Structure formats: C-alpha cells, structure tokens
Amino acid sequence: MVNPSLADVTRRLGGIAYGGDYNPEQWPREVWHEDMRLMREAGVNLVTVGVFSWSRIQPRPGAYDWRLLDEVLDLLHEHGIAVDLATPTAAPPPWFTRQHPDARPVTVSGSRLAHGSRQVFCPSSPAYAQAADDLVTALATRYGSHPALAMWHVHNEWGNHNALCYCDTSAAAFRTWLQERYKTLEALNEAWGTDFWSQRYGDWEEIDPPRDTTAFRNPGQELDYRRFSSDALLARHAEESAILRRLAPQVPLTTNVMGTLEKKIDGYAFAATCDVVSVDHYLPAADPDAHIDLALNADLARGMAAGRPWLLMEHSTSAVNWQGVNVAKRPGETRRNSLTHLARGADGLMFFQWRQSRAGAEKWHSAMLPHAGTDGRVWKEVKALGSELAALREVTGTRVRGDVAILFDWHGWWALELAARPSDTLSYLDAVRDWYEALWRLNITCDLVPPGADLSGYRAVLAPSLYLLSDGDAENLTRYVDQGGHLAVGCFSGVVDEYDRVHLGGYPGALRDVLGLVVDEYLPLRSGEAARLEDGSYARHWAERVEPRGCTPELRFADTPDGGPARGGPAVTRHTYGRGTAWYAACRLPMNTLGKLLRTLCAEAGATPVVDAPPGLEAVRRSGEPHDYLFLINHTEEAIRLPVTGVALAGAHVTDGQAAVPPGGVVVIREELASTPADPRPGTRHSPQGAST
User: Fold this and answer.
1) Residues 408 and 387 occupy one common structural domain
2) Which tens digits make up the pLDDT trace of 164-219?
3) Which residues pair with 279 in a beta bridge?
4) Are residues 345 and 255 in the same domain?
5) Do residues 155 and 90 make contact, with C-beta atoms less than 8 angstroms apart?
6) pLDDT (tens digit, 9 = 90+) per residue, 381-423?
7) Per-residue 3-state assignment (H helix, E strand, C coil) for 23-63
8) Closest CA to 230 of 276, 267, 183
9) Same domain as 648, residue 557
10) Distance of alpha carbon 557 from its chain centroid, rounded?
11) Is residue 330 domain-resident?
12) Burial of 31 (0-12, 13-18, 19+ CB in 10 A)
C-alpha cells in the first residue's frame, strides 16, 4: 500500500484545505447547528476536532463517553466537512494527575508542577504512556473507519510546555538513553570531557539530569539532555502513530510542529515520521517585519516536508493572547499572511480556532468566528478568503523550487546558546533571520534544510550559524564546494563537534580547509561597541582575527582606531576550492553589507530573483504542469505595477501585460510553461534526515 499523504486529503476536499480547530465541547448543542451553517458559508472543508477533549471522552479511569464525538462527527459529515481527528493526549484530565502525581513534570530546580494547564505530564512517565496509549487505541478503534475522518492529528505541539522534565523517572530514562548512545562509560566520559572539574563517572547510576547546581553545568551533558528530551517526546509520538497506523492504515497522520517558535524539539525528526508535515505559525507582534519571519517559517516547513506541499495547521485571524502586547491584524493582513503561506508551498490553511472561546486561557485569542459573531471585519475577511481559496484550487499539488539552501539545525541552536560561550549576544535565530532577510529582499527563493541534506541540486548554500558541526556534515559541505557549489558561512562556525568538543588545529576547525583560513582569535565586542568596516558600515557583537591560508579578503575591518580589535584584518573572505567557491563572514555583518555579499554570491552561482521587483514586493513561484503560479505580495503602502505573462487568478486583472498589485495586496498569476527544456534539478532535493530522495 502506498503511504497516505496530503494529496489524499486535498483530493478528497477538492482543493485547498481550509478551516480550523473546532471545539464543540465548549458550547451547548444548539450552537453546533449554527456552526455547520456558518462553516459552509465560509467555505470551510476541514476542521480539527478533539485536541483538548480528554476529560470529556474519558471522564474517569476506564470509562469512555463517546456521545459528543459521535454526534459532532456525524453532523460534520452530514454537512460535507471533513475531520482531522486529534488524539487528545496534550491535556491529561484532572483525575489522571490526581491518580498519578508522580507523572507531573519537575523543573530544573526541583519543583513539581501542578495540574491546571495543558501538557502537565512527564514525557518519560510510564503511567502517562499507558493512559495515552489506551485512549488512542479506543479512539482509533471507534473512529478509524468513520466517513468524516480525513486525517489523524497526533497530540498537539509536542514539547511546547513540558519538553524538559528533571524528575527521577526522567533521570532513569536518561541513563538508559545514554547507555544506548555511548555503550560504555569510557565513551561517555570522553564525549563529555568529564575529567574537567572531577566529573568522571564510574557508574551509570551516578549520572543525573543537568539540574540546578553550584556553577556551570557540563555542556556535553546539557546538550545530550536536550537530545534525550526531544527523543522522549518523539518516542511518545511514534507510539501513538503506530497505534493509529495499525488500526486505520489508510488514514494519513500529522502532528503540528512549531518551526522557530519551538526550540526544544528537533522539528526535522518529528516531520520525518509524519505522512503530512504540518506547522503552526504566529506573527511576533513586536516585529515590524514579521512578514519576513512568516516567509522564513513557511520555507522551513517546506524544508521539513522535503519539498512536498505541507499544511499550515494553525495561524490567527487577528491577535493572539500570549504575547506582551497582542496586536490586532490590520485589514487585509489575514489574507496576505494566508496567501503567503500558500505561495511558499502550503496546500492547506487552518486557524486556531473556529469559534472564539467565551472562557478559559485563550478567550482573547482571535478566531474565524469572533465574539462579535458575523457582524465584524474578521468574519467578512474569513468568508472572502474561503471563497478565494476555492477559486485557487488548481494551485494544489504544485511545488516551490528553491535555488538556494539555508542550513538550519536545532542541535546547533541548542549548543550555541548554552552557558559559558564567548558571548551571549550571539543568537542563533538572529543569525538565521539576518541571512534569510537579505535573501528575501533579493526575491531569491530558498529552502531551509539540515546540514546533512543532499545539497547537490542547489546553486548556493548559506550557513549563517554552524557553531556545532559534525565531521560528516563538514564533509558534506566540503564535497558540495569541491564539486562546484557556492557556499557562504557565518561567523563562529565549524567550531565544535556533535558532542560540543572543540575541533582542534585552529578555528574554524571543521571548515578550515574549505574556507582557506584560520581564525587566530575570537573577539566578542562589548555592549554598545562596534567595529567599523572599510565600506563605512559597522559590525556589532562579534569580530574575529582571520589569517588567510589561501582565501582572498573581499572586505576588511577599517585600519583605524574604530576598526575594533580586528582592525585592518579580513571581515569577508572568498576562497576557490576544487570547482567551487566558499565565502566567510568574520563578524555579524550589517544588513546592507550582507545583502551586497549575497547578491554577489548568488549572481556568481546563477541563483536569480523570481522577478525583478521593487523593494517591498515579495515574489514566489509555485511550479506544476501545465502551469506555474506567480504570487506577488505587496508589503508597501503604494500600488506596484509589474510586467507579467499570464492570467490573474486573484487580486487583479492583467492589463497590457502588467499586473497592478494594490497596497498590502496579493496577486496570483497563472503562467503558461515555456517550451524551453525543463530544469534538470529535482524539485525534491533532500529528505528531513538528509538522505537523497
């Protein structure tokens, strides 16, 4: 049997998935019939049901009450709305935590957390595992063949609140994980460098989680604990998935990972286990360029999906409820955000949630149907979006092809931001976002992929932050350049191996040869300090003293007192290696300088903009047969006219070969495929684990 996929879901729906979390348990029965009518009016064709319904389904141990789900699933099916049925294991009921108090998670300082929120469980708890598996088995047995069921939704946002538990049960599970990873204590002691501070272990039972202690914790131990914690949740996800596949193998399954919103779990590892890759994304309201963060996370979702279409499981129609200031979206912003996700490969756009809650912790989180009902702006925009997505159904199944790869690695994120680094001002996400933004402003499409991915199809590869780099991944990058690739690497990269041990022989150890240089010394800058570059711009936070060993300096620190501690030395270098080229930035480059570097690199590599567009106009192309689809997204306050070839499907008409993109608007153009030979580069270049597909 062919594995089920998102294509099975969209084929059943007749196009793009559209809807949101539906929580009928929050409302009296008479409201449900109004929900059905309004869902149909809004064009909703898929809803997620049951995410937080454990206490309803199983009101006490061993007793199940299916009446609500029976009625709701039948009602949805009767009205032609498909169901993404969730395993409600992200919110254990009060009876469970009362019956199993030791299953509640423990903080790094030793406090056991109380019931009263969601994800109040230890990922390693046997009691939780048994209760969750029993529930999932009962749910799948009852509804695995229900005609409304289109997809399984496993858990919800794994590890969002409870990824790191430090209880004794977790400690025992950690020791087992370590024995499987290292086999011998000698290997563990070598990996962690335990001869420092007299930490050498002589018995597995001596090892605890990296709890609060007197000074710095062992960084190798901390890094492994993050890996263990992610794996513990992944094991729970795998067990729930196995039950669902055994009882309903024809139904695709997913879980909603959180991209850059979630540091604690390895998103690639979770995505690799799913039939459908789905993500949640919420705008950081304090960021005036939050639309760039949106694009980054959409491209990361596509990277996790190995280039295939993916599903946006959650975003908001307006404000969220959990940021410091929860800013409402402006008119037209919901459409613009939604169609940007569609442009970058999503075949489904879902919201949290359908009907805005009247009570509870998320009552101020916006929804498709707000507190005001059908009278307000949000509802009108939700209806209009549903109608527009129906008209864009032909886009479904087409793919986005990136010329450039940006390397993204949760393990490197964990390692860079542990304590006792040279500077705590080096933020992993800041580095990735800087480089992504520079590429975004050039309108060059990229995929975000792990360092071990198959890079052979990319014209250029960018590595904004690779502090942690294994020998195997370093060889992958070196081979890419040697075979003709174009690589650019950010500062403080290639420094340590997968155990957080320094690559010896000179920085940046694992990349020294391919970059053609040695870093003599890392020179973090003080708060408020800057180092002037010879182009007149200023680098902040970081500088390095670089000794060329074959590379050519392309930009230097100014040879003046304001040039900082690396004055006169190389700030950007270029090195020919084999048939390719490797660039290095020895500081955190200011945006204009970084943009010039990437423009030059991409031009040399043959990575071209989607269209030649003015600043503020985002352009993305989805490719298929017999048409391509060009999305033009205007982030300015002025209308922009652009030459196009094709027919407008949304947002404007094409007149005299030009499309007018209104302020804050989105235009979708259906393009006829040219008769030139197809690009031989594969549309799917890598798997989430880096294997060729």
Assistant:
1) no
2) 999 999 999 999 999 999 999 999 999 999 999 999 999 999 999 999 999 999 99
3) 257, 312
4) yes
5) yes
6) 999 999 999 999 999 999 999 999 999 999 999 999 999 999 9
7) CHHHCCHHHHHHHHHHHHHHCCCEEEECCCCHHHHCCECCE
8) 267
9) no
10) 35
11) yes
12) exposed
Q: Same domain for 312 and 414?
A: no
pLDDT of 359 = 97
157 is catalytic: yes
Residue 655 has pLDDT above 60, yes or no: yes
With H, G, I as helix, E, B as strand and everything else as coil, classify residue 130.
Answer: helix
In angstroms, the CA 99 to CA 173 distance is 22
545 and 593 housed in the same domain: yes
The domain that holds 659 is classified in CATH as 2.60.40.1180
Whether residue 687 has pLDDT greater than 70: no
Which band of pLDDT confidence, cut at 50, 70 and 90, is reported for residue 1? low
The two beta strands, 346-351 and 17-22, are: parallel
Give the count of domains, the chain. Answer: 3
**Domain assignment of residue 108, given as a range:** 6-163+251-396
DSSP 8-state symbol, 274: -
Residue of 222, 314, 388, 544 marked active site? 314
Convert the pLDDT of each residue in 4-40 to its tens digit: 999 999 999 999 999 999 999 999 999 999 999 999 9
Asked if 257 and 267 touch (Cβ cutoff 8 Å), the reply is yes
- 314 catalytic residue (yes or no): yes
Check 157, 240, 498, 544 and give the catalytic one: 157
Contact 151, 13 (CB under 8 A): no
For residue 641, is it within any domain?
Answer: yes
